[in-house]
Amino acid sequence: MSLEKQLSHSMEILSTPDEFQQRKQAGALLVLFGGAHCGVCQAIKPKIEQLVSERFPEILLAYIDCEQSPEICAQEGVFSLPVLKLFIDGQIHLELARNFSFLELRSRIERLYELWMTTR
To answer: Are 69 and 14 in contact, with CB atoms under 8 Å apart?
Structure first.
């Protein structure tokens, strides 16, 4: 995989409600809500980047640090970490919190991604 492709699928850090709302409306957005002191969040971040880069190239990735941006996390009802949410055209289509498997994550995103790609 080229370096350019890897960089294009690294997680964008969103820190303001306006940034978040803007990204949410732009196609498909997978958001990891986490924290610097959440070991699980930091461990799964590169795995999520790799999964999306390899299998779902049209999905934008974002990371919201709930310690740095508590307003966004409160508005989204995120009170435990990690939380993953997939938004398509501004609507939430997937939410996984705390304990989930990557197999479950991949299969659920795959189904939604295929539907989204065929209706674009």
So the answer is: yes
Report pLDDT digits (tens) over 77-107.
999 999 999 999 999 999 999 989 999 999 9
Question: What b-and-e string marks burial along 102-116, b requiring 16 or more CB atoms within 10 Å of the CB?
Answer: eeebbebbeebbeeb
* Segment 9-18, tens digit of pLDDT: 689 999 999 9
Task: Identify the CATH assignment for 3-119 out of 3.40.50.20, 3.40.30.10, 2.40.10.340, 1.10.10.10.
Answer: 3.40.30.10
Q: Could you give the CA distance from residue 21 to residue 16 in angstroms, rounded to a whole number?
A: 9
| Three-state DSSP state, 119 | helix
Q: What is the pLDDT of residues 51-74, one digit of tens each?
A: 999 999 999 999 999 999 999 999
